[in-house]
Every structure is written in C-alpha cells, then in structure tokens.
Design a protein that fits this description.
single chain, 459 residues, alpha+beta, globular, binds flavin-adenine dinucleotide
Length: 459
Amino acid sequence: MSTITTHRTPRIAGLPADRVVVAGEPGWDDARRAFNVLVDQRPDAIVRAADEHDVVATVRHAREHGLRVAPQSTGHNAGPLGALDGTILLDVSGLDEIAIDAEARRVRVGAGVRWEQVVPALSELGLAALHGSSPDVGIAGYSLGGGMGWLARRHGLQTNSVTAFELVTADGHLVRTDALHEPDLFWALRGGGGNFGVVTAIEFEVYPYAEVYAGACFFAYERTREILHAWRELLPTLPDELMSWAAILHFPPDPALPEALRGRSYTVVWGVFAGDEAEGRRLMAPIRELGPAIDTFAMVAPAELGDLAMDPREPLPFRSAHQLLHDVGPQGIDALVDAAGPGSGATVSMVQLRHLGGALARHDIGAGARATLPGEICLFALGVAPDAETAQAVEATLARIEDAVIAHRAGDYPNFVEEPADASAFFDPPTWRRLREIKALYDPGDLFAANHPIPPAGT
Ligand SMILES: Cc1cc2nc3c(=O)[nH]c(=O)nc-3n(C[C@H](O)[C@H](O)[C@H](O)COP(=O)(O)OP(=O)(O)OC[C@H]3O[C@@H](n4cnc5c(N)ncnc54)[C@H](O)[C@@H]3O)c2cc1C
C-alpha cells in the first residue's frame, strides 16, 4: 500500500525532508515540469537526490511501501512515462560530479550531468564525446537508450562507448557494473534504459579530435524539393567519417535569434567530417555548390558541434513523430516534400533527416542490447503546439509526414519515441527475451518505471 497519498511531505528514512516535494507544496510545479511542457507529470512525490545515499534511501522506502520509482535526469523523454500513480519521481539532476581523464580518454559523470557541462571542457583538451544535437540533454537517458550524434557513423551509438555504470538496484544496493562485473546487467543497461535501477554515475570513452570540418548550408525554403533530392543523392558517396543531416526548419520570430534566421524558413544541410578540411570540402561540394544563402562550413573545435543543430534549449510545448527509414528513393523525398514542404500548409517547426549506416550498422563484439540502428535515414519531426487548435494542426501534419514515408519504415529509435509505446517492437525477439530475463533477475517486482518499460520475464 502506498503511504504517499496526502499533500503532506512524507518522511523517507535517511533523507532530509527538503529533498521531497509533493503536490500542493511550493516548488511542486517546477519540480514536475518536463522538457515538453505538455507532459503533465503527477507522481505521488518527487525526490531530488543530492547523492547516491539519497537514491538508496528512496529505493528502499519505495520498496517497503509498495511504491514504484521513476528515475529522471532532465525530463527530456518524459512523454512515454504515462501515469505516475503510486510512483516516486526520482530526480537525479543533483548528481553532478564530473571527472575527465584526458590521457586515458575516459570521462566519469554523475547521472544528472548534461552534455553541455562536459563537451566544452573536453573540446579544450582536444577530445570529443558522442553527444547528440541538444547540449542540455542528459547523458544518462541518452546513453541508456542509445545516443546518436554527429560522430555516430564513425563511432556508433554512445551506449557502445559506455565503459561502466554505477546504479542502485531494486534491493537498495549500490552496484558497479562493467564488462567484467555483472556483465548481463551491463549488457542490458546499454540500450535497455532505466528499467534495471537508478543510475548514479556513468563512465565512457571519448575520442581525440582537435578539430573537425563541420557546418551547415541554409537554402531558401522554396528550394526544399531540389535540396532534399541532392542531399539523398549525396548519401551513398559519403564515408563513415562524414555524417550529414538535412532539415526543413521554421524559426520562430524570437528576438534572441540572429536576424537572418528570425521568423524565417530554410532547408538546411549539415555535415560533420572527422577528417581534414580539403577532403571535407570535396565531400560536401555537391551541396555547397548549390548556392546556399548561408554557408558556415569550416574547421571547428568539437565544442561547436554542441549547438550546430540549433535545437531548442528552453522547455516548450510540442508534439513529435519519428521513424527509422530505409532509402526512401526519389519518390519518398517527393512524398515528404508534398507533406511538409512549400505549399503543403504543414504546421511543424522541424522535419529532420539524419543519415544512418556506417558504425551505426555494425554490431561490435561485447556491445549491449542496443548496438545498432536499422535503416538509412532517421526521421524526426516536431511541431510547437502552444494551444489545442495548433496541436490539432501539428498532429495532422505529423500524421501526413508519417504516411508519406511509411512504405520505407525500418523501425524505431527508442530515444526519439516520445509517446507510450510497446518496447518489444524496439528489439529483435532474442534481445527482448534476454532483456526481460535480466529484468526478472534484477527487478522481479517491477519497482522501476522507465520511459520504455520492459516487463520482467514470467509476468
Ligand atoms: C531537444 C532534444 C534533442 C535530442 N537530440 C538527440 C540526439 O541528437 N540524439 C539522440 O540519440 N537523442 C536525442 N534526443 C533524445 C534523448 O536522447 C532522449 O530524450 C533521452 O531519453 C534523454 O535523456 P535524459 O536523461 O535527458 O531524459 P529523462 O527524461 O530524464 O530520461 C529519460 C529516461 O531515461 C531513463 N533515465 C534517465 N536518467 C536515469 C537514471 N539516472 N537512472 C536510470 N534511468 C534513467 C529513465 O527511464 C527516463 O525515463 C533528443 C531529445 C530532445 C528533447
């Protein structure tokens, strides 16, 4: 039976009262806000852990009182969590330790650390991490689900670069797992997400890059069809060292944006080449020679990749859609532009395509549950939905976009799935079976509520 059902701060043995907040108390709305502000998180209580002892105390309390625990580091993927009745939301953003061993090219971070807190420091040391498009995404959720960024065709998913996790398991003990210690748990965490415990620290490998050749070409929105065809034709010519993304972007009329972007729409092609300038220029020439309105390609320090995609930094209300796709062919590009390009009446802020393949398609020995991603292209579309009417228009556009490419569907990338979903669809049957068996071993009572739940085997 739950003991946290009143609007009074519950006492959790070993935890100072000011680390717990419940509905009706000052700070409740701030504490429960997710990155997508449309997500209405209503757990029984929120614990803001300051260290791993707080995590242990919370897990033990939940277990003793028949509650569940939902670990959260930033709330960037809170949408799929669903109802949090009978659940303590365990906010680990206070676990903010950072240690960089430049010589060993290893980083250790607390589970609350966001990419923006380590990427600039690494860059100054001539090192790059496998972060994604948004500097304020948490390293924990990103790494537990996969983690696909600018260097992914060269170095694969971030989860493959994780060398150790520390976590509090359902029995309330702090455990360290790596390739040699509790290797099944280590395998499951690398892709199986927050189903197996509350991660308190993560260690991972980073890569030596003083500079990379990177940038974006912004083309007039009216040229979307021509540019996306050219981008698709470029992809087969690219080596693993080059990752290119393309997007239709509608910038808001935000005074904080540079004038050239503010309130304007563009089709953008990015490239990040882990190599020298001459070769990077040669590889991106088919796009750069199309006469972009803005061209930012140059040799840059890895820190510049943090914000290259210009993702939103502040929490906002949005709906999104996502699919992994095989090569969509010229017809697929046409269908996508019909659904979301000029003249379509589309109500979205972004339709983004990322080139997959390379290391993303290679399963290394010793990899975890999420070693690779299927397909050639990752589609992610997002529309800002400040009110119900706009939300309806956004949803209609997202449905049209999904329909336009459905024939080329290769699967889903769980980190980009923002709605409750059947996680069995994210894995092949043997991987799913093994994940469920490991869940049954480490969390037989299903204490942990993850964004993409894996039920224990036998339930
Ligand atoms: C603007 C934006 C840009 C993005 N860009 C990329 C990108 O380029 N590449 C990419 O791969 N993904 C990207 N993502 C997706 C992102 O990787 C997922 O949303 C990821 O789950 C976020 O992790 P988090 O810790 O920040 O979020 P949270 O919502 O805090 O965590 C998500 C889930 O991870 C688990 N989790 C988090 N912390 C812990 C913990 N300490 N212990 C156990 N489980 C935990 C939980 O199950 C939790 O529900 C982006 C998302 C957004 C919103």
